[in-house]
Write a structure and sequence with these properties.
Chains A, B: Residues 1-53 form the HTH lacI-type domain. Two copies of one chain form a homodimer. Chain A contains twelve helices and twelve strands. With 330 residues, chain A is an alpha/beta fold. In chain A, helix 5 packs parallel to helix 12. The radius of gyration of chain A is 25 Å and the shape is elongated. Chain A binds a DNA duplex (16 and 16 nucleotides) through helix 2 and helix 4.
DNA sequence: CTGAAAGCGCTAACAG
DNA sequence: CTGTTAGCGCTTTCAG
């Protein structure tokens, strides 16, 4: 900036004014400054600025999700970016792989970089470690999973109701032997979906439900379902607890040619789910909406909204495409 | 930091030493400092530090891709994050939507935040605007697309050869009326793939190839192919120039029940392409590998590697799953 | 092993 | 309308 000031023959403060579009600079001076900026390919150092700036804001956000590689997370990511763009806020992104240690490390890394706010899919047994951060004025909005031990903004899907709906849907199609393939139970949404699934069945008569939990990826789910299908008294219907699990289930069914005889409902949409044969019936989530709402919340908090924390639930919906409407045999 | 120093009854420099694991601090002093850090939930300000630090490094990277929402980009993203994690580097991510203006804006935003390096899928007619940046010591590694007007590290797929292979594959299965659905030609890979496709056909006899370019999303591709299929002398085979286009083509074929009679080869893999019926034959790219190599290059440059720019081409491969092996009628 | 002083690039506060 | 001075939180340098 000194160099620009020297080249434009003005003081550094004038350069600062021009660059930040502050008033009280004559057009001629401004033009001199701009041409010096162009000549030197100068870019202000925002970080240095925020050090001194009254607000202390860095115009930076931290986004922490399970894995950017998962369409659910990348849709959230995209929505957050889109909300950040017009505000000239840059987004730090980090995949946590549902690992609590990685979560704390990544949150720490972002805090050391003085992000103005955090959007977080937490994995921690307790998110209380973020309390001082919030109190010090760095808002945290939780997405996808409810945090434990902290009262803060949360945006989630309607996990329990969605799973209940899936269970009822399968029972309504005559299924009495249903298996639910569930993620690791240390993931909050997994227990929610399992509970919802169980709730959905209590009203139905004599359904024999098997719950397999601790599944986390496609391969594990495929293997688990494969064993059940090969065993005695195999299920006539499957509930896939998240998108990767549903994909694993699809593969297990396909491998045995059962995709048209065993029913399947997945939680969270699956890419090209409408193009498979049969189409994959899912409880659709709205990750884009979740991301947009979460971004709205952080920015509102950053802008000083200090109302009570809110808990926003984005409804899911059942998309019937065929796989979930397969009728139970006999 | 002053507060921590006061609480631990040491100077700020000692706090700095402890936090940065520098030598020459007694164990007892270090412990006092750590407990003060915990008591205050203190996090160093890395940005303030890098202002004064000799290296000037911010341990920050800028990653600019077409859209994080596309599996190709999110795989790259994931690979870059994984390379950044052990180096304690945080990654700024931004989707550019193949918009040159958005690109320059996002690059500027990251430069103003003093990233140590940039990984970029460029859209600009000329990337020469980055020359001063590179000369000043901020490395830029281009991914996916070759930049124009600048000599810098590039990591791409084997676009031309891959497209050639796709064309030959279809011709070898007897197709003589083939349509290539190509992205906007201002995207470098689109012209490469179109040219490769055409090259692949010149050796084959009397193939009537139609090239439709300017397609950018699934819907556009679906509409374009739909019209061709409904017209006179419809194609017997289709080449999808990128993953979204391939999906659009799949939908167009499905809508007319032609997925088993019209051949299809797509460039870039499609999610669940192996589970569709027929399976989708693709020229598979390796985005994860591209991302990993690109990250390696930036970090090498950041660490002072000033050898000549390299141009790394990651080979593609044809994955035959059925749709591309449909034989031409008659 | 420890701390004081200076200064990184910028903006706030104020003086002209 | 413009410039000067101080200081943001840290690390460098150097002196104890």
């Amino acid at each position: 900036m000194k160099d620009v000031a020297a080249l434009a023959r003005v003081g550094t403060k004038t350069v600062s004014r021009v660059i930040n579009a502050e008033p009280n600079v004559s057009a001629a001076t401004a033009e001199r400054v701009w041409s010096a900026v162009r000549a030197l390919d100068y870019h202000v150092d925002l970080q240095a600025g925020s050090l001194r700036r009254a607000s202390g804001r860095t115009r930076t956000l931290g986004l922490l999700l399970s894995s950017i590689d998962n369409p659910f997370a990348s849709a959230i990511s995209r929505a957050v970016e889109d909300a950040a763009l017009p505000r000239e806020v840059s987004v730090f992104a980090s995949s946590l792989d549902d690992d609590a240690q990685r979560e704390e490390a990544a949150v720490g890394a972002f805090l050391r970089r003085r992000v103005d706010g955090l959007i977080l899919t937490t994995m921690s047994r307790s998110a209380a470690y973020l309390l001082p951060t919030i109190q010090r004025g760095t808002p945290v909005v939780f997405v996808d999973r409810e945090p434990v031990g902290i009262d803060a903004d949360v945006v989630t899907s309607d996990n329990r109701a969605g799973a209940r709906r899936a269970a009822r849907h399968l029972a309504a199609h005559g299924h009495r032997r249903i298996v639910a393939l569930i993620d690791r139970l240390d993931i909050q949404t997994a227990t929610e979906r399992r509970d919802g699934f169980v709730e959905g069945l209590t009203s139905a008569d004599s359904v024999r439900a098997t719950i397999i939990d601790g599944l986390h990826d496609s391969e594990g789910a495929e293997r688990a379902l494969g064993e059940l299908l090969a065993g005695e008294d195999p299920p006539t219907a499957v509930f896939g607890g998240q998108n990767l699990i549903t994909v694993g289930a699809l593969r297990a069914l396909r491998a045995r040619g059962l995709q048209r005889s065993v029913a399947l409902v997945g939680f969270d949409d699956v890419p090209l789910g409408d193009l498979l044969e049969p189409g994959v019936t899912v409880i659709r989530q709205h990750p884009q909406r979740i991301g947009a709402i979460a971004a709205d919340r952080v920015f509102a908090r950053i802008d000083g909204d200090d109302s009570a924390p809110v808990r926003i639930v984005v409804p899911t919906e059942l998309i019937a495409r065929g796989s979930g409407e397969i009728i139970a045999p006999r």
